Structure formats: structure tokens, C-alpha cells
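Anyone have C-alpha cells for Transcriptional regulatory protein? Sequence:
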Amino acid sequence: MSENTDYKVLVVDDDFRVAALHAGYVDAVPGFRALAPVHDARMVPRAVAEGSPDLLLLDVYLPQGSGLDLLATLDVDAFVLSAATEVDAVRTAIRRGALGYLVKPFDPKVLASRLRGYARYRRQLEGSAGLDQQGIDRAQRALLSGEEAGVAAATPTEAAVLAAVAAAGEPATVMEVVTAVGISRATAQRYLANLVQAGSLRLELVYGSRGRPEHRYLVQD
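Reply: yep, here.
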């Protein structure tokens, strides 16, 4: 996907009002565009074939079919958005490939956060021809680096480190962060590593004429 192309999202929900609401949530997130929602399970394969969505937002209870059955047949990334909280439903959704499971009703900020995590996940997977174990783990964490991860990670120091990198206007060095935030080099390195691992920052290695490469950091788009 090119930088100027939005991720296309297909909302599948039998409630016309809820489907329109969720499509509106999607359109409010930069980098995402909702396709016309689908309300009948029988129409989903055709909508996928014609619209080529990147991601489905899929309800479990649908007329003439089940969203969980669709998961097993459609080769498309999907989040399940459903009021179904039974353990069997959740396990089946995950077993059949759902990348996320949101219980309705939910705050639109939660969906927005998950969509941004999905965008990071896609960028990390598409940024290289191959992945090592750390790259795979980082991509998987990106999917959940929304509300849950944000609560645990939003410390004042981490926010200051992230702001310092963003304010630099170009890839920042560890010492530039140390100076801007007023922390030790070891502390700066620890927070920078955590932010890279969470997908908020990207690490670049700059090689000079000799010696070890210098680490530079920039905000992940």
C-alpha cells in the first residue's frame, strides 16, 4: 500500500444504525476509509471480492449466517466487533484468525486505537522482505498497543521522551533526548527502547566512517 492510500475497511453488521456508526468511526481515523457496510452474511464474499478490503469489522450474529463461519472462509484480516462474550465465541474467533475482539458497545476511541495499531502492524510487516523473531513479536504487539498498552506506558517521562524526539524534526540521538528531557543516558536509552518496541518510535542506524553505528530515533508515522 502506498503512503497516499488509505486502508479500506468493510463493516459487517446486521444493525443498519450500528453499521453506519462504526463506518463513521473508521472514517474519522486518518489513513482509513470505510466501504459501504454489509448487513447480510450471504453478501460478504461478494463485497470482499469487489471492494478488496484490507480489514473486516465483523459481527458474530448475522442474518443467514455467522460471522465466525465467515472468518473461516475469508482470507482477509478481521476484527470481531460483537456483543457476544461467551468464551466459546471468543476462542473460536481467535482460533479462526481474528486479529482483535471488541465487545459492543465500546468507546470509539478504543476502535480508533486498535485501527492505529493495525496500521503499525501492517507497516512493520511490509517494511522488510523478511522478519526475525523480534520483528514478528513487535508486529504482534502493535495490534494491542492501543488502550491497554497506552494505560500502562503513559508515564510523564516516557511522554517527555516521545515529545523530545518529535520536536527534533529529524532523527534524534540519545544525547539530544538526554539534553531535552534532563535524564541520564541509561534512562533515555531504556525509554527509547521501550518506545521502539511498542511501535511508537522507529530506530535507524547511522554508520560513520569507523566505529559502531549511531542509534537515531524518529516518530513512527
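The beta strands are 7-12, 32-34, 55-58, 61-62, 65-66, 77-82, 100-103, 172-173, 201-206, 214-219.
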